[in-house]
Every structure is written in C-alpha cells, then in structure tokens.
Amino acid sequence: MSSQDIPEENLPAEQAHAHGAVGVADGENPFADPGLPPHEHRIQDIDERAAKRSERVVALLFTVSMLATLGFIAAYVTIPHHKSIFVFPIGHLSAMNFALGLTLGTALFCIGAGAVHWARTLMSDVEVADERHPIEASPEVRAKVHADFRQGAKESALGRRKLIRNTMFGALTLVPLSGLFLLRDLGPLPGTSLRHTLWSKGKLLVNVNTNEPLRPEDVAVGSLTFAKPEGLEEHDENFQTEIAKAALMIVRLQPENIKDKRELEWSHEGIVAYSKICTHVGCPISLYEQQTHHVLCPCHQSTFDLSDGARVIFGPAGHALPQLRIGVNDEGYLEALGDFEEPVGPAFWERG
Q1: 326 bridge partner residues
Q2: Could you read off the pLDDT of 235-266 as tens digits, one per residue?
Q3: Cα–Cα distance between 212 and 206 in angstroms, integer?
Q4: pLDDT for 13
Q5: Looking at the predicted structure, is the pLDDT value of residue 18 above 50?
Q6: Mean pLDDT taken over the chain
Q7: How far apart are CA 146 and CA 309, in angstroms?
C-alpha cells in the first residue's frame, strides 16, 4: 500500500526539514541537486492495527530473549559438565556448552532483531538532510542536538509503546545475568575434588592395554606399564576427567637400586607406582630409560628419577611425581593401599 492510496487527511504530517533544497544547474554547478525522493509511508504509519502488530512482534522477541537468558542460567546450574549429547550432523558435543551457546545466542539475537524490527516499522523513517557544520559545538548546535534528541524520543514512541519499553528493559536487564553466573566458578567450586582420585584401599591396578588386573609377575624388571583404577571404563562419561588424575605408571626395579626409603616401603618387590601426570603442565609421561631409571615428559623434557623418589633432575617441573602405595591382595593381584597423599599434576596452585 502506497501513500497515493491513502486519503491525505490520514497521512502523518511531514516534518518541515524533511528534504533538502533542490538545486538548479548553472555555470558553476552544471549538475543540479535533485533533492531527496518523495517519502513513502509505511503501513504502520497509516494503520494503528498494523503498528500494534509490529509492537507485539517486538515485545515477543524481547520476551523470548528473557526466557533464553533464564534458560542459560538454568543450563549452567543443572547440566553436568561431563554430560555429552549427539547433535546431527556435528557429532558428540558437551551438553552444557551446546545449551549455553544456544540460549545465549538466542537471547542476544532476539534483542538485536527486536531493536531492528522496532526501528524499521515503528520509529520515524523520514529522510532528513542536514548541512555540514563546524566541528566545534556552538550553542545553536547544542540546542539543535537536544531538540533532535527530544524529537527522536518522541518519534520512537517509547513513552506510548509501553509494552515494547517494558519488555526491552526486561531483556536488557536479564542478559547481564549470564555473565554474572559465569563468575560462579570463581567461588569454592570445585572444592577438594582435585585433591583426590579414584584410587583407594583395595582398588586393583588394571592394565590399560589389556584391561586385566595386574599380578607382580606381569611386570618385568626394566619394563614400563600403564594402569588405571579398577572399575574405570573408557565409555564412562567421566572417564577423561578421572583418568587425568588417576593415570598410573608402573616400573619394576631391583630393590637394591631404590635409593629413597619411603619409595622402597611403598613398593612391592621392587614394583613402584607413580602418577603418570607431569608436575609441570600435566602432560602424560611415556618415555622410560632402563639403565638410568629416568622417565621423560615429551612436552618440555622434565626428567624424573624413579629410583630416587621420582625427584626432578632436569626441566621445568616443580616437584617430584606423587607415588601410590601398593601391595598384593589374597588373590595375588596388585592393589592400591590408599589414594595419593598429595595432589597429582601441575603445581596445583602452589600446592595450597
């Protein structure tokens, strides 16, 4: 519907400064300024019912934004961080990350879409030509800016369109709560979970490659074997989290080659068990030198002496590898006699 189809008395009054002066071609300016094209009124300008529909659409978008923000908060609080879901065609994703991205993206998109729809359908779209003015703000310019601001506020109908105003303020108020809830992890969480692993008294040492419990005769002198706690399976949702703390490195030495007294007491017939996680930045240690009994972290070359309490002899690691006290149960299988007595992995906040 164009303005030609509407009776003239129903059309909104034009602003006196809506169009610039039309220039005339002369000798100095051979190209005439055609001025701005005639203004075409939108359906919302001439039909209050259409304007109400647009108002409801904008309010709906702002309301959806508020609901999405509440969904972001609910997802952050209720979804376990280790839970995963399958999303076609992407594959397996973290359920929490997917929910947070979807809800926060929806909240921000709806605010932007609502603002754009509001501006395109309800705010004034009259073209205004304004002459360039000096950079300095003269009193006249300041007065004009204030007048233009008041005019823009009036044309936005913010005071008259209370439904849009209230829902917009609600959406803009709730969105910052998303960032506020992200600060939750700066508090006491994760508690003492990083100080403990799945190892406990009586837990069998299971070979990572064969998935079978280990006997002392399975570990030859000079060999390097990797173990995990009994009951931890790769298909478990928390497997990566737990194996990152509980991964074990088993080496058999001649008892007379063990220099550290506690290491000898915590071993079984020369079999020693140490954390596989480097105390520098948490890389898995996998290189073993039989003659020197040294293990090397491949990431930054931190080197530990397994015959002397796994102390650091080279590299940036801050302290020795934690040792796990082991023994043999009645069935002849290697078992843990407790958990590590110190946190595994990197310096762990200066081991505080």
Answers
A1: 336
A2: 888 888 899 999 999 999 999 999 999 999 99
A3: 5
A4: 53
A5: no
A6: 85
A7: 76
| Confidence label for 39 from pLDDT (cuts 50, 70 and 90) | confident
Per-residue DSSP letter, 155: H
List C-alpha distances in Å: 170 to 66, 110, 135, 186: 7, 12, 38, 27
pLDDT of residue 8: 53
Q: How many CA atoms lie within 13 A of 136 on its CB side?
A: 2
- pTM for the predicted model, two decimal places: 0.52
Both ends of the chain: CA-CA distance in Å?
Answer: 73
Say if residue 3 is exposed, middle or buried (CB neighbours under 10 Å; 0-12, 13-18, 19+): middle
Tokens encoding 283: 């890389």
Cite the beta strand spans of the chain per DSSP E. Answer: 84-87, 91-94, 205-207, 224-229, 248-252, 271-275, 287-289, 294-296, 303-305, 311-314, 323-324, 326-328, 334-336
Pairwise CA distance, residues 53 & 40, whole Å: 20
For the record, the structure tokens of 328 come out as 């043999």
Q: Is 282 left (phi over 0), alpha (psi -120 to 50) or beta?
A: left
3-class DSSP state of 199: coil
Tokens 């001649």 belong to which residue? 254
The DSSP call for residue 303 is E
3-state secondary structure of 72: helix
Are 167 and 57 in contact by the 8 Å Cβ rule? The answer is no
The pLDDT confidence band at residue 20, using thresholds 50, 70 and 90, is: very low
More confident residue, 39 or 15: 39
User: Is 78 a residue whose pLDDT tops 90?
Assistant: yes
Give 231's DSSP letter.
Answer: T
Tell me which residue of 344, 249, 233 sits closest to 306, measured CA to CA: 249
169-196 burial, b for 16+ CB within 10 Å, e for fewer? ebbeebbeebeebeeeeeeeeeeeeeee
Q: Look-up: residue for tokens 């709560």?
A: 177
In this predicted structure, what is the pLDDT of residue 177? 84
